[in-house]
Amino acid sequence: MNENLSRIQHGKHHDPFDWLGWHPLPGGQWALRTFMPAAEAVEVVGHGEMTRLEGTDCFEIELPSPTDPAAHPPLRWQDKQSGDWHDAICPYTFAPQLGELDLYLLQQGRHHHAWKILGSHPTQVEGVDGVQFAVWAPAVQRVSVIGDFNGWDGRRHCMRSRGSSGVWEIFIPGLQPGLAYKYEILNRRDQIVRKTDPYAQQMFMRPETTSCIPADAPYVWEDDAWIDARSRFDWQHQPVSVYELHPGSWRRHPDGGFYNWTELADALIPYITDLNYTHIELLPVAEHPLDESWGYQVSGYYAPTARYGSADDFRLFVDACHQAGIGVLLDWVPAHFPKDDFALARFTGEPLYEHADPRRGEHQDWGTLIFDFGRNEVKNFLLSNALYWIEEFHIDGLRVDAVASMLYLDYSRKAGEWLPNQYGGRENIEAIAFLREMNTVVHGYFPGVLTIAEESTAWPAVSRPVEIGGLGFSMKWNMGWMNDNLSYIQHNPVHRKYHHNLLTFSQVYAYSENFVLPLSHDEVVHMKHSMLDKMPGDYWQAFANLRLFYAWQYAHPGKKLLFMGCEFGQWSEWNVGRELDWALVSFPAHDSIRHLLRDLNQLYRQQPALYQYDFDWRGFQWIDCHDSDQSVLSLIRQGDRPEDSILVLLNFTPIPRHQYRIGVPASGHYRELLNTDSEYYGGSNCGNEGEIPVQAHPWMGFEHSIEVTLPPLAALFLQAR
């Protein structure tokens, strides 16, 4: 047995295309060779039986010229065990399918559509139907595609090496969408590892860990009007109000089963439309092995999770949202990935996607691995993935998780547990460059698409353009506002006057970034209590405090975000294993919270003063921020037109305050646009009936003033008429 035969027989040939397939022989004839371990006999249709090479599962036939060496003659083979005959075409008769430019761009980290060439793709090559596979796995001896179609035998479909690119590819005739597959890798240490496809666009339902050949029929979108309008979306000066949800626990079937995307669309879209939200934000929907990770430990970056249906089912969901006028944001996780041995971790049996040094390559707190952002192919994997969700699924924005952990090399590490950068600093230079490039690329391809950073430190210019030194995000979560204000509202009202600065401090930095005010899933888990359960006081006061707090979020500059269940005052913390406590909606006190949020969203969307200058000091003015003794705030939100200005008064105590005087910028009369103490919202119905006359009484630096009644634990929105 010659060396080529031996290496092929034992699955150790680095590139079996060098010997299998068509090869010229002396005298003008050609040899056609194939390797079929399950075959008792093989014949070439129309040319006769192939010869088994002694001691091997390789078969060969000599064919005279002028047989076309580019042809792919049909084969018939007899199964050793069953004796049945099957049709096949030798995969080794096909030329390379990936172009040199593709390989070059991958190596440079600039192939923005890498998912179109890597992974598995049903296609037709030279008139033959099959599936094209390609994977990046450098510095290994052999890579094979394995599945039911070849008995999971890694010798059967060994891939072609594309040299220094580290890419391996093969076209396998006859395969169909829906089949399971993995890659089998023989590394340089003679270890065999079996891995799911990093670029797989479909995975099987957990606990399965196999990739699935995706469907080849393109989805027909019907959201052209939305996509066209999105390209001109002036998000800085338009309302953005986001309902954050986990699709697996918003609703469940009575038996605990998940809603699929179609069922979720049917139930969710009318609900969101009624509440007047502009967008929904989905917790990560990329494939992940553990429900309890909420989707944040991703194992299949290009595969919408099978929990809720197929990739096209997800497209249908997004399409339906767009046709209903609802934007769809997606939580995206480039900061880390899990250690599951079937996925990205030690992909070739050695670190590949992660940094090899655990001081840079591992999050000790989370038990996850960190991408090696300095490696072009890894950076390309993530850049392409960001574009993939937007291009393939029409996603309107990416909320990037755990950005702070990417920016700092010493994030959550003690001295000696981290490595400084080349300048001796703590900044992760490669990750910073990646984030800047990601934002530049996304905004370059898709104007109007949002990128939003969850960044919890004082890193400067997160939401400023790359060209002036920023990270390039559209917006940033305002974690300072969230922490300060949640801390404040949890104090007993009698003590709030001592913590008044927690309400006002955010104005010191409110316009340093384009901020989102997040009341997210992270604030209603891990013994932090639900939003309603955070509120002090008796039953009535707890609901009143919650109404007041939501009104304060809408009065404060910044886009809005609220997690599911908070809109009707769920008492219990969010539990990923079951649906929300929907029975509470039948109680008026809880449903009234939902009514309030519906009206707050409507007011926010209808009144330019509440959104035109969310990121600009021109949109906000204190009337009085110093009344700590009475725990009262008064302010003005303003837009382009002075007549659109809205006065907001907030009373953070349960004491009604009558004849409370504030200065006002306009003459005439004011009227209530919204009062959170209305009986419609479950309040005491204390407030101001009819018009409130403006008096020529200078006050607080204004030439005019009004006297109003401030309801207990309530907010008033007033406008001049």
Give the helix/strand class: alpha+beta
Sheet with the most strands, sense and barrel status: 8 strands, parallel, barrel
Q: Cα-atom Rg, whole angstroms?
A: 31 Å
Tertiary shape: elongated
**Strand elements, count:** 36
Look at the structure and give the mean pLDDT: 95
Sheet with the most strands: spatial strand order: 17-18-21-24-25-26-27-28
Overview of the structural elements:
The structure is a single chain. The relative contact order is 0.07. The longest helix has 19 residues, at 588-606. The strands form nine sheets. This protein has an eight-stranded parallel β-barrel. The chain has a six-stranded antiparallel beta sheet with strand order 29-30-31-36-33-34. It has a four-stranded antiparallel beta sheet with strand order 1-2-6-5. Helix 7 packs parallel to helix 9. The chain is elongated. The chain contains 14 helices and 36 strands. Pathway: Glycan biosynthesis; glycogen biosynthesis. The active site is at residues 401, 454.
Question: What descriptive keywords fit this protein?
Answer:
21% helix; eight-stranded parallel β-barrel; 721 residues; EC 2.4.1.18
Short description:
The mean pLDDT is 95. 21% of the residues lie in helices and 25% in strands.
